[in-house]
Structure formats: C-alpha cells, structure tokens
Amino acid sequence: MKTTRIPVNTERLAAEQPDMLSWVMGGAPHKIEEQEAQGQQSFVKSETLPTNMGRWCDYNTKTILETAGVKFVCEVPDDPMFQIVELPTGWRKIPTDHSMWSKLVDDKSRVRARIFYKAAFYDRSANLSLSCRYQVSFDYGRSEKEGVGVTNITDGGKVIFSTEPIPVNREKSWRTSEQTNKLAVEWLDKNYPDWKNPGAYWD
C-alpha cells in the first residue's frame, strides 16, 4: 500500500520532546532555524497543500486549482493544517531561498501559487495564495541608477511591456511609481482585461 508523504508535524514533536521548549528561551536559536529549513523540505517533498488557501478577491482558490487539474483528496489525519492533493503531471512545489516560502509551479515552470509555511513548533502556520499570470512591478534599479521611473509588466519573469521612462521625483519618489504603475495597469486593463483573475490566461 502506497504511503502518502506528509509534512512533519513539529508541534507533535515538541509534545514528545519537551526539551525543544528551551529553544524558544534562547538556548538554541539555530535549532529553530534548522527546524524551519527542514520543515520547508518536508513540505515540498510532501503530497500536500495548506488547508488555509483563503480567497483572492472574488475568486475561489480551490475552484481555480481544481479547474487547473489539482485533485483535493482529504485533510491530513491529525494535522488539519494540510490537505492531501494530487497535482497535475509536471506540477511541483519548489523551495525559495527563504525557509518559510515555497512556490507551486506548473508543467511550464510558471508560478501558480506562493506558499507560506512556518514550521517552528511554537508558531506553526501555513497558507497558500494564488498568483496571477501577469505581474506589475516598478523598476527600482533604473530609478536608483538612471533617475527614471519605469514600471514593467512581466509574464513568468519575462518583461512583456514597460512604461515610458519619466524623471524620478526625488522628494516624493512614491509619486513616480504611482504614476507609472497606473499606466502599466491601464495597459493591462486594455490588453488583458481579466488579468486580476488568478485563473485567467494560463492556457
């Protein structure tokens, strides 16, 4: 019989190993960092997603993932923080450089969701947030190096549109990003009117 891979329940470990409580009192802070890093690996190798998936505006996270082919099986017995799932062929979870964050990517390596999981036993929590295909981001590099404000629209990390550069208002730099971001959003609204829907434009 196939064994389903689930994340290690660090809260249960703490109950079984009371000496772990000393970590929180400053006795071994590196142990907490190690537990979080190990928790990230335990999660990405598991066959689960967080149960707390919240909602994205008016869009239902579970429905969007089911439409994409994710099958929800059941909550993990004795650990309702996670639910057992079957991902579509080619989909996988990958860790980021931060031990509390991972990504759910599809068969084309596009980020479909970002996942937070704090594995530290004293404050364990997890949640999932869907990602839209098109992202809006102000180019702070050009702002600092060239003194111009530009907002990019990216698709899978690749820039597909950039606003025209405008001089940065050094005294009120936030106004520059606000202005170029507005122009970028207007472009998206015109070319991809449903871009705020995390279930749109993937196929």
Account of the 3D structure:
The chain has six helices and 14 strands. With 203 residues, the protein is an alpha+beta fold. It folds into two domains: 10-130, no CATH class; 134-191, no CATH class. Helix 2 crosses helix 3 (29-44). The protein has helices spanning 10-16, 21-27, 29-44, 61-68, 140-146, 173-191; strands at residues 48-50, 55-56, 59-60, 71-76, 79-86, 92-95, 101-105, 111-118, 125-130, 134-138, 148-149, 151-155, 158-162, 166-167. A four-stranded antiparallel β-sheet has the order 6-7-8-9.
Q: Key terms for this structure?
A:
2 domains; 14 strands; four-stranded antiparallel β-sheet; globular; three-stranded antiparallel β-sheet; alpha+beta; 203 residues
**Radius of gyration in whole Å, from Cα?**
21 Å
| Uncertain runs | none
Q: How many independent structural domains? A: 2
Strand order of the largest sheet: 6-7-8-9
Give the overall silhouette. Answer: globular
**What is the total tally of β strands?**
14
